[in-house]
Amino acid sequence: MTIWKSAYSPDLYREVQHWRGKALLYLALVLALCWTPILIKMQVMIDRTIRRAEPSLLAQIPVIEFAHGQVKTPENRPYLIHLGDDDQAMTFIIDTSGHYQSLDGQVALVLLTQDKCFMRQKTGEVRTFDLSKNQAGQFVLDQDMLRKLIRIFRVWVVALSFLFLVLFSYLKRLMQAFLMALIGLGLATSLETDLDLGELLSLAIVSMTPAMILETLWNLAGGSLPFIWILWAALIVGYNLFAVNAAASPYMPDH
Questions:
Q1: Does residue 57 fall inside a structural domain?
Q2: Which residues have a Cβ under 8 Å from the Cβ of 5 and sit 6 or more positions away?
Q3: Claim to verify: residue 163 and residue 134 sit in the same structural domain
Q4: Domain membership flag for residue 38
Q5: Which mean pLDDT values do the consecutive 10-residue runs of the chain (255 residues) have?
Q6: Looking at residue 194, what is its pLDDT?
Q7: DSSP assignment string, 163-176
């Protein structure tokens, strides 16, 4: 199998140099394979967190009615909603009574009033949204609707994360491979071989496999070391040198 042979087989790299477009597909498949167990672990953690937080969250949120730019709740009083552990809880305020007019002096992240929504950004800045400009018809957010939204979140957050992470890491690895291919041009010259940029790119892509697999296993194990990226970079460079040297060497059958 190509993934395992990439760690030791010169013959594989003599074949890989001719892959070109196939190497691009190979990179996508390997990245999908690497991200799958990490996202499964993420899904388990999300499900566990939601199961623990959902009953408490639903018990705190009142029925909220949106209609023609106005917000209504069953009781005309502030509702303080806490999500998370006591020492790290996130607080949201729903208040149609006028008691809370802004987030000034509050630790809450969101304040929903009769006609405005205040949201605190990561920078500490508070953005204000004027709901009175929205003249849409009636919309009711009750516990049944919240349960449906939570189910949708559980299903789609991991799927969308998978697509984003695979795409982002694909572009990142492709840039790394292109850089290694450019460096490989100088190495190919010193080895007096006629490997072109497309062949070197194929070699660079496949030679990253051992580093990608080991990095995935490291992350799954929860490993954490400063400057661990230096090890992955060294593996990528080392295997790329191995790949180019193997491709430049003639095939020597065993006797």
A1: no
A2: 11, 12
A3: no
A4: yes
A5: 86 90 94 94 88 85 89 90 70 90 88 92 89 83 89 87 94 94 84 84 94 93 86 92 84 50
A6: 81
A7: HHHHHHHHHHHHHH
CA distance 42 to 64: 31
> Is 253 part of a structural domain of the chain?
no
As a whole number of angstroms, the distance between CA 113 and CA 70 comes to 9
Query: What is the separation, in whole angstroms, between the first and last Cα of the chain?
Result: 24
255 assigned to some structural domain: no
Q: Under a CB-based contact definition with an 8 Å cutoff, are residues 239 and 211 in contact?
A: yes
Residue for token pair 């080991």 = 214
Q: What is the pLDDT of residue 122?
A: 85
Domain termination residue (choose one: 112, 141, 170): 141
Q: In which domain, by residue range, is 165 found?
A: 2-44+154-248
70/63 Cα distance (integer angstroms): 14
**36 and 161 share a domain?**
yes
Residue with tokens 């508070």: 126
